[in-house]
Amino acid sequence: MSDCIFCKIIKGEIPSRKIYEDELVYAFLDISPINFGHTLVIPKEHHQSAATVPENVAGRMFAIGSRIGILLKRFDEYDGYNLHLADGTVAGQVVMHVHLHVVPRGAEDGFRWNWRQQQYPEGRADEIAGILAAKLREKIG
Length: 141
Ligand code: AMP
Ligand code: ZN
Description:
There is one protein chain. It contains three helices and five strands. By secondary structure, the protein is of the alpha+beta class. It has a single domain (about 5-115), classed as HIT-like (HIT family, subunit A). Strands 1-2-3-5-4 form a five-stranded antiparallel β-sheet, with helices on one face. Strand 1 (about 20) and strand 2 (about 25-30) form a beta hairpin. Bound molecules: adenosine monophosphate and zinc ion (ZN). Adenosine monophosphate binds next to loops.
């Protein structure tokens, strides 16, 4: 897509710090990292949403992201990593070319996900699980 910043990075029209590239995916350092080494893994083909990325490409994104995460864990300051994907503006997606964040994590990194833990009202969890399971069966079989 011609006006997409990540498509331009893949084509070399915008500079990036490349970590990895193959026929399906491209990985490079995030320009404003949560922690140093924070990497983005993107499909070479333009997709806005993960939902339209072919399974083999999505699988490669996950596999390469995990391998980069494992490598980052070997840095002195890190003991783990988060894989994060924001799909849609309300979910925090700013660049509309789907990307998997690999965020290295250390015990003392001072970063916390703002993660809340709600309680389901009576019956609601069963209802939601039922709807999702039925729709998935319909679409996937
Ligand atoms: P998201 O909010 O999930 O859409 O994340 C977009 C990410 O892209 C942010 O973490 C940005 O720092 C990163 N980003 C934006 N422009 C560039 C760029 N030119 N090179 C590397 N990372 C970028
Ligand atoms: Zn793109």
